TrEMBL record:
Top-rank taxon, per record: Bacteria
Domain Phosphatidylglycerol lysyltransferase C-terminal span(s) in chain numbering: 23-292
This protein's name: DUF2156 domain-containing protein
Taxonomy of the source species: Bacteria, Pseudomonadati, Thermodesulfobacteriota, Desulfobacteria, Desulfobacterales
Pfam families for this protein: LPG_synthase_C
Length: 297
């Protein structure tokens, strides 16, 4: 099969990309179109298309391939070439567990895999986040109760009509967090701003906004990635309101349809504080990911 050149990701790619993403046996948050498109500039992401597969390459912080997207089980990997002509050894990152297992069976010792704990997705049972049952959720439930009792709040489903208010809250959040002093926070802010500004063009976005005394106090942005699963991309709140993060999380999840059984809250990227916070909500599962090195000869 002839190799197609890598080209920058465009909004025009969404429908074609999602058709292949929907055929993936395992869906990781990294590979949702919203995530790829949002981070395309930060990571220098580009796509190379084949009829039944799309390859993903990053240029920053160093050139690297991500896992290809398509129906992994239907592909004869022994006969499929990576779109890097002349390369006899290459690395891939963020490879979901199911694809890593397929490749290991196919390539044996020519495929080396290393666990990438920092990229594992945290997956929660929606019912657990709605009910917050048991002692393990005591602290979360206490903060939620304090918020619900202490503030004159109102929840609204996120929509294009709320984008400007969300952008204003995001700008304030960046001021509180001194985003200009952090490369990671300023980069994240660029991504969030672009996603909000292209709300309708990005398809299956959902979310919510919490108001306190009618002023925006928190918002969340999520995406439907499967019939029973959403991924939460963004969650930001005003630091003056105790329990605001527990509130926006609970209010959003409590209003999801019962068909949504799983909440993917992305990875911790090796940040110990973020890891502790994500573990504090007791994930039901992880989407494990690996770094893979392929040796062709």
């Amino acid at each position: 099969m002839p190799h197609q050149p890598f080209r920058p990701i465009s909004l025009d790619d969404r429908i074609r990309y999602e058709a292949l993403f929907n055929r993936c046996p395992q869906k990781a948050s990294d590979y949702s179109f919203v995530n790829l498109w949002g981070w395309r500039t930060i990571y220098g992401l580009s796509l190379a298309w084949e009829e039944d597969l799309v390859w993903i390459r990053q240029e920053a912080p160093q050139p690297m391939l991500w896992a290809p997207i398509g129906d992994w089980k239907a592909i004869d990997w022994a006969r499929r070439d990576v779109p890097l002509p002349g390369v006899l050894e290459y690395d891939m990152i963020r490879v979901p567990e199911h694809l890593a297992a397929i490749w290991s069976r196919c390539f044996g010792e020519r495929m080396q895999t290393t666990e990438s704990r920092e990229h594992w997705d945290y997956v929660y049972a929606a019912q657990d986040l709605r009910e917050l049952k048991g002692n393990k959720y005591h602290k979360k439930k206490n903060l939620l109760s304090q918020f619900l009792k202490s503030y004159d709040f109102r929840y609204e489903p996120m929509s294009e009509a709320l984008v400007e208010e969300a952008l204003s809250l995001q700008e304030d959040w960046c001021t509180w967090k001194s985003c200009e002093e952090s490369t990671s926070l300023s980069g994240e802010n660029e991504v969030i701003t672009e996603i909000l500004q292209n709300w309708n063009a990005l398809g299956d976005l959902i979310g919510g906004m919490v108001r306190v005394a009618e002023k925006p106090a928190a918002y969340t942005i999520a995406e439907v990635i499967d019939a029973d699963t959403i991924v939460v991309h963004v969650e930001k709140g005003h630091p003056d309101y105790k329990g605001i993060y527990q509130a926006v999380n609970w209010l959003f999840v409590s209003r999801l349809p019962e068909s949504i059984r799983w909440i993917n809250r992305e990875q911790d990227l090796g940040d110990e504080g973020l890891r502790k916070a994500k573990l504090g909500y007791h994930p039901a599962n992880f989407v494990k990911k690996f770094a893979c090195r392929m040796i062709l000869s």
